[in-house]
Amino acid sequence: MNHKRENGFGRREFLRRSAAGLGGLTLGTSLFAKTHSGLLLPDVPAGRPGKARACILIWLDGGASHLDTFDPKPDAPAEVRGPFDSIETKVPGVRINEHMPRTAAMLDKIAVVRSMTSSFGVHNFGVQYVMTGHKPTPAIEYATIGSVVAHVRSVVQKRDLGVLPSNIAIPDLVSRDSAAIGEGFLPSTASPFALGSDPGRHDFEVRDLDCREGLGEERIERRRRFADAFDRFHGENDATPGPKTDPDLQRAYDLVVSEKAKLAFNLSLEEPATRERYGIDHRANVHDANNIGQQCLLARRLVERGVPFVTVNNAGWDNHFNIETYKNRHPGDPNDEGTHALIPGLDKAFSGLVQDLEERGMLDETLVVVMTEFGRTPKINSVGGRDHWPNCFSAALAGCGVPGGAVIGASDDLGEFVKDQPVTPSDMAATIYTLLGIEPELELQTADGQPIRIAPNGAAPIEGLV
């Protein structure tokens, strides 16, 4: 029976409006979104043996230069080599950027892919391709790898993941040019839960757990009881089978009232020495920049508590002007070089995360991936920067059996094109799924029953990593 009312909205719309009074809870990109199941098609295996229980994706938003991070060209002409030197690493014959000494010292625990290649040199399509493994198309909105993992873990494999969301973005999952990066055709429960605040700031507070502005547990409980009562009132006349309570409302309620959830986001519980390992000065009383170290530390706390996928969205890599700013956010400011700088910040955060996971016995079951949407032009432009370049770029992986010290593929002498073993974003997606014990051939359904493979036909796990 349709419960449309004269005032223009029915039972579900009423629930939506009532829940809005919870203070604007924002679980994922939309608290109340699609409710179709995205169910697994019959007779398709959900998984294979895989070591990784969780994945932390360090996303370098904007297109990080491969030449100025993991694939320097010290013998190239100056206009290609750029302003930075390179240094030796723990792996003989492999060099990386001079501002990544900590990563260099532990490269024997990290695999580098130097032959990523894409068809898209604009942000929105490039981001979608790398984050989903599918080439963008107007016919369907594909789900990001994080959303697929969250959905498979909780719905297909039916794992009890606790009260924390299964897919968390730190601080959000917003990219340039309005890239469609979210749950795509999957249910809203797979959407990335955006914190709404950067842990690199001194006033960091997860917006959905902040009860300071009248959003108390008693008020939330009253609204939940009201929504349940509204369900019961119409239940006997509603032909729709199954429970009536909106699952997203329940999810919001469970998160807000959970003391465990609040503690998971409390970085002050970490030892100062641990925070310093990630490149954080615990003595500073202000963190006003995008501090990737604090972001990665929070990511570790979340996977430690059962969250299967966390994205650290580190912005600022879209640099068309003066590539030297990669080493500090404000040229000439010596106080800003290091913790808040892009390359040194990545160095401290990535190496600190891998080391921390290993010492806690978590590295074997946690996959860490560093990715970006494309690389940058080999030749420095007229204003000292590098422009978009999808033909060749780099990625890095660690944990869950990834062979440390491996260098997959190679670029040519100028870092312009792939010379050996091209790796597409589809192949990378298939690799991540495989390491997480999920079949890349797995098919899920759209709302209208269309089967969608989580990795497209032709995608294959990267030889040498799996």
Main attributes?
single chain; 466 residues; alpha/beta; Alkaline Phosphatase, subunit A; eight-stranded mixed beta sheet; 12 helices; 27% helix; 13% strand; disordered N terminus
How would you describe this structure to a colleague?
There is one protein chain. This protein has 466 residues and is an alpha/beta fold. It folds into two domains: 1-32 and 216-264; 53-206 and 269-436, Alkaline Phosphatase, subunit A. Helices cover 27% and strands 13% of the residues. The chain is built from twelve helices and 16 strands. It has helices spanning 11-20, 78-81, 101-105, 123-132, 145-156, 217-235, 247-256, 259-264, 272-277, 292-304, 342-359, 425-435, and strands at residues 54-60, 86-88, 95-97, 110-116, 167-170, 193-194, 309-314, 366-371, 375-376, 388-389, 393-398, 407-408, 410-411, 418-420, 443-445, 451-453. The strands form five sheets. An eight-stranded mixed beta sheet has the order 6-5-7-1-8-11-4-12, sandwiched between helices. Strand 13 and strand 14 (418-420) form a beta hairpin. Helix 1 packs antiparallel against helix 6 (217-235), helix 4 (123-132) runs parallel beside helix 12 (425-435) and helix 6 runs antiparallel to helix 7. It is globular and about 70 Å long. The N and C termini lie far apart (52 Å). Residues 1-37, 211-215, 282-289 and 330-339 have low confidence and may be disordered.
